[in-house]
Amino acid sequence: MSIAADPVTEPVRQLTTLTGWRQFTRDKPTIPELLPANEFERLDEAERIRYDETRIDYHTRLTVIATSTVRNVAQKGRRLTLLNRHAVSARRGLILSGAAGTGKTTAITQFGKMHEASDQARHPHRNDRIPILYVTVPPAATPRMLAAEFARFLGLPVTQRANLTDIIEAVCGVCCDTGTSVVICDELHNISLATKSGAEVSDTLKYFSERIPATFVYAGINVEREGLFSGTRGEQIAGRFTMIGTIGFPYTADWRAVVATLENTLRLHNHTLGTLTDLDRYLHKRTNGMMGSLSALIREAALEAILTGAEKITKQMLDAIELDHAATDSVHRNRRTS
To answer: Which domain of life is it from (predicted)?
Structure first.
């Protein structure tokens, strides 16, 4: 088996630009094939470096698993886009809310990817369409900052002299001309309706939703605690948006299936399938059932296995990896209350 001379490419990963989003929707990573043991042992130093780098690059990518949240968002989002297809006002929307690391961004971006593919299938001979617009709400956002994020995704220049109305008109014009039918706004927790600027940003989003004939999908950390549904503005949001809560996985058969799926994606020479599923309870305690933490833990362990030459993941290796603070803090709190 030949070893590729340049196995790793550097795709654009910035989802908040049209170029980055399209790269994301078209990206289909190649799953590296493991060499037979005798060929693996015969690799010279340069070949081994290239071979390992291909597998390292593969393990650094997030493996998307069709969890219940991903499936639920895909199904609900699909139905909402159909309901809104001919709506002229009061379009229905979707909000994902939950703790950090519970798969919100993964779910909404996978829905966006699915919707983009569906739109391309409906319009196979059109290459000028922009069915998805994806933005993140900046911290301490102002209406102009948010509008500028919409413009940045579309590649529209925003000059210092451009006022809010100018930016909104340009964005809405392009979205209507290019068939934008889903707008995804991530990091919604950066908007607080309790502040004047937060309320103004919320009003700007509402105005965009009235001007752009699209289904709006929001995601943020525990947004209901930020007063999203409070007051007159909150009542309007609550009356039009369905909320899906995201939580960590409970320790059930579904969790074991997720661990098994991730283990099956590993490309390590000495790893025995079933090692991680036998550690499923341990993994649940380490990560508190958080998908983001589980994925990061297993992928980092896979990288360590390649870099050290161990070519397998062990409990000792997993113990040595420090997890994100949220997962660690949750584990400590659970220990104190048990």
So the answer is: Bacteria
CA distance 135 to 147: 10
Q: What is the pLDDT of residues 108-160, one digit of tens each?
A: 999 999 999 999 999 998 889 999 999 999 998 999 999 999 999 999 999 98
Of 158, 141, 223, the closest CA to residue 189 belongs to 223
Task: Name the DSSP class of 276.
Answer: T
Answer yes or no: is pLDDT of 313 > 70: yes
pLDDT band at 7 (very low <50, low <70, confident <90, very high): very low
**For residue 316, with 0-12 CB atoms within 10 Å meaning exposed, 13-18 middle and 19 or more buried, which class applies?**
exposed
Pick the CATH number of 68-246 from 3.30.1370.10, 3.40.50.920, 3.40.50.300, 3.90.930.12: 3.40.50.300
DSSP 188-222: GGG--TTSHHHHHHHHHHHHHHHHS-SEEEEEEES
Name residue 161's amino acid.
Answer: R
C-alpha 321/C-alpha 301 separation (Å) is: 7
Where do the domains of the chain lie?
43-65+251-337, 68-246
Among 277, 145, 133, 282, CA closest to 212? 133
Alpha-carbon separation of residue 302 from 52, 120, 266, 294 (angstroms): 11, 36, 7, 12
- Report how far residue 327's alpha carbon sits from residue 42's, in angstroms, rounded to the nearest whole number: 41
Contacts of residue 101, defined as CB under 8 A and 6 or more positions apart, other chains included, come to 248, 290, 291, 292, 293, 324, 326, 327
What is the structure's pLDDT at 64? Answer: 82
d(CA 205, CA 207): 5
Amino acid at 44: D
Structure tokens at 27: 């990206």
